[in-house]
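TA notes. Do not distribute before section.
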Amino acid sequence: MTHSLTLRVYYEDTDLAGIVYYANYLKFIERGRSEWLRRLGFDQARLKADAGLVFAVRRLEADYLRPARFDDLLAVDTRLLTLTGARIVLEQYVRRGDERLFAAHVTLACLNDAGAPARMPPALRALLAPPAA
C-alpha cells in the first residue's frame, strides 16, 4: 500500500534561486510519514504517552533528482518496504505529477524513553504489517 500526501511549495520553502531548499525535502517526507501513520489509525503521541516509545530516523539515503519550485503542487508517496520487531524501512518519493523530484529510503527505529532500541507493541506491528497475500 502506498500513501500519498499532497502539499504546495510556499515561498518559505525556496532558496535564493527560487527552488526548494534541499533540507525541506526532509520536512516534506517527514510529513508524509506522519500522515501515513495517521491514515493507518496510529497515534504517535499516544504511543509515547502510553508505552514511552517513539520513532527516530536511524538512516536516510536520499537522491535529489529535479528541482521543485515556488507554488508547485507536489505529492509525497510513502510505501512500507520492511517491518521488523523494532524497525521500519520505507521508500518515499516527492513528485510533481508523474515526475519524480526526490527519492529516499528511510529506516526508522523504535526507541524507549532512554533512547535504546525497543520492540514495537504487537498491536502496532499488526497495524503496519502488509496484508497477507
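Switch to the second chain here.
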Amino acid sequence: MISVSLCMIVRNEEKVIARCLDSVADLMDEIIIVDTGSSDHTKEIVSRYTNHIYDFEWIHDFAAARNFSFSHAAKDYICWLDADDVFLEKDRQAFLKLKNDLTSDYDTVLMDYVLSRDFQGNAQLFTRRNRLVKRARSFQWVNPVHEVLVVDGRALSSGIEVTHAPMREHKDPLRNISILEETIRKEQGNMSARVHFYYSNELMDHKRWDEAIDSYESFLRREVDYFEDHHAACGQLAHCYHAKGDAKKELQSLLKSFEYDLPRADICCRIAYWHEEHSDYEKAIFWYEMALTREMPPNHFGLMNKICWTWAPHVQLAICYGKLGQLDKACEHTEKALEYLPGDANLLANKSQLEGALRSLKAAETKAPAETAAIKNEGGG
C-alpha cells in the first residue's frame, strides 16, 4: 500500500476546515497544513488533526505557498485539497481502494473536481485535476493565482471525485485580478499565455465586457500552447458578446471553437440555444441532436458542464419539437430526460401536459374524419 501526505494551504477557514479534514483524515498518512495568515480559529481547529502546521508569509503567490506545503511532505504520494473540498463516502471508499492497488509506476492520479451537483447528487459542473502525485518527482506549482501543478509521466484516471462545497463566498472579489495585474506589471506587458487567459477571465467575471473582449481576442491570436485554454476562450468570448447584445459575434465565437477541437456537446448546446432564442427551431434541433452524438473528451482539464452530455439536450429538444407542434417527439425526449432525472417534478409536469395535449390532438384527428363522413352521408340522402 502506498503512503500519502495531504498538503493544504489555508487562511481563515474556521467554518469549513473541520468538515474537510473529517472527510479525509483517516485516509492520509500525514497532514501538512500551511497557514498564510489566519486571524480566526483555523489553526486551533487544525491542531486537532495534525501537528504539522507551518506559517507562510503571504506574498500574493498561491503557487509559492503550495510549493512550500509540498516541501514538507514525507510520504510516497502527495494529495492536495482546498479547505472547502470534501470526499463523499463513495469517494472515500474508492480512495482507500486506490491506496491498496496503486503501484509506483504511476506519477500522477487524475480525479474529477465537482463544482455542482443536481438534486440527485450527480455531478453537473466539473473539471479534472492531477490530485495525487508522486513525491519523488518533485512536481512544482506555477502561476501566482489560478495556479497549476505541472506534471508529466504516467497518469491514471481514477474516477474518484473531489467535491467542492463552499458554505459562502468569502474571498476578496478583487484579490485575483489584483494579483494578475501585478504579475503583468512585473512582466512588463510580456505576460505568459496562461496569465493572459486567466486575466481575460477575471475581466469577464468583473463584467468589464469591452476589456474582456479585447483581451480574449488578443489571446486567441497567440500561438496555441494549451488548446483547452483557446477552446474555453471561445466560449467565454461568446458570453461577453451575449452580454453586449452582439448576437452575430456571439455565434461566430462559438463556431471558432471548432478550430481547436471537435464539436463538444456543451458548445453544440450553446449554438442550439442561440438558434432557439432566434426562433429557428429546426436549426436548434439539429444542434441539440448533434450534442447527443458527442462523447465527452477522455483526457480533458477544462470546465465541463455534464448536463450537456446527458439530459439537457433532451429537455430543449422537447421544447423545440413542442414549438413545431410535433408533440410525439416532444414526449419522447421528455421521457429520455426522465431517464437521467427520475422523479423530477418539472419534467413530470411537462410529461403530463404533453401527454394530455397529445391525447386531445389524437381525439380531434379521430373525430374530424367521422364528422366528415357524417356530412357526406347526409348530403347523399
